[in-house]
Amino acid sequence: MTFRARKNLRQVYALLARLSFPRKRALLLPIQTLVTARHLLPLAKLANSMGIPVFYTIYPRLQDGEPRRLIDEMFRDVGHCIGPGRTHFHRWSLIVVADHSYFHTLAWSGSPLVHVGHGNPSKTSRRFPQIPWEYSHAARWPNGNVIYTEMIESAEGVKSAIMEVAPEKGAKIRVLGRLIDDELLRQHALAESASEPAESKPSLLMVSTVGPKSAFNAYWHELIELARSLSSRYHITLCPHPNEYSKWRARLDDDPGIEMIGQDQSTESLLVNASVIMTDFSSVCQKAALLNIPVIFFRQDDMPVWSEGATARLYACAPKWRPGQSMDCMFDQAEQNRDAQHALARTWVNSHPGEAQERFGAWLKEYFPG
């Protein structure tokens, strides 16, 4: 059966559910990747704590292997797994997705379908450079309208900028903050208050996103040499995008001064203890700015990012490294830039830090009254 035929069949099942079945009082979380699973988990925990039944479903291509095991382990205590096909046989009280792709056919069931970004909008496409990818590529009904009931963001600046270029999409935006950000802020505060051994080295994370223009693809050999030269002064951890983990794990030689993040870890879990990060256009730069951690970018002036977004704004004011440049100068500039990037983060990364639990809780009650 072709991809199109399978998609049409899912739409038929969903439409039948819309016409034939009562609404299932539960929250459904479709999971497209390991990254989206990690970002949807805090919402699952919150809903579960409120007595809302939680179900999760996994993209068919992740049904086997290590990512599937990790996802099941994450959601074991807060949700029930349901097959991706079976999800289309129900009308749900609420469906929340963090990726467009496979599961947008669920909207045909008449269930409220809400998009929660797993990072502030940053990337664009060549076809639509004036608006973030999350909005230019949002699934649509046959009449051209975006299928989402709402699109949740964490920053007021993002909503204002999108309202200017695409009012019909901006009108769907609700600014609630971000649950995973609040957990990072809490953990970071605990880490800063804890006493550290005097002999411990500061932590430097080298973070790469996915694709041919990512830091690891553009600078791998130079980056490894740089890491070796800094390993006597910093505890260095390489953090590739989960979708390219195996590729870069296989290329890293055993080196006592350089580590790679474990596949079962998230970069965010290491970020709370980081002293400085080096990255490309990964959304981790936004979280680092929110936590007031110095950021150094790998120089990539043709980054495919939204000019109005947080990543582009941080890149414009942060130090940028290219092979041959002095790292001492980079570290000094990054330290001096902390206040500016932190202020920028309050408008363009998260306008309501520390408030997400309350805001998302009130929002869930709108879909699950009583």
Question: What characteristics describe this protein?
Answer:
370 residues; alpha/beta; seven-stranded parallel beta sheet; six-stranded parallel beta sheet; 13 strands; 15% strand; globular
What portion of residues is helical?
40-55%
What's the overall geometry? globular
Proportion of β residues? 15-25%
Mean pLDDT: 90
Low-pLDDT stretches are: none
Tally of helical segments: 15
> Largest sheet, order of strands side by side?
3-2-1-4-5-6-7
Q: Note the gap between the termini.
A: 43 Å
Number of strands: 13
Return Rg in Å.
21 Å
Class from helix and strand fractions: alpha/beta
Largest sheet: 7 strands, parallel
Spell the H/E element sequence.
HEHEHEEEHEHHEHEHEHEHEHEHEHHH
Walk me through the structure.
The chain is globular. The mean pLDDT is 90. The protein starts with a helix and ends with a helix. The protein has helices at residues 3-20, 34-49, 66-75, 133-136, 156-165, 167-170, 179-193, 215-230, 245-251, 267-271, 284-290, 310-317, 327-336, 338-348, 356-367; strands at residues 23-31, 54-58, 80-81, 91-97, 113-116, 150-153, 173-175, 203-207, 235-239, 258-260, 276-279, 295-298, 320-321. The chain has a 7-stranded parallel beta sheet, with helices on both faces. A 6-stranded parallel beta sheet has the order 10-9-8-11-12-13, sandwiched between helices. It is built from 15 helices and 13 strands. It is of the alpha/beta class.
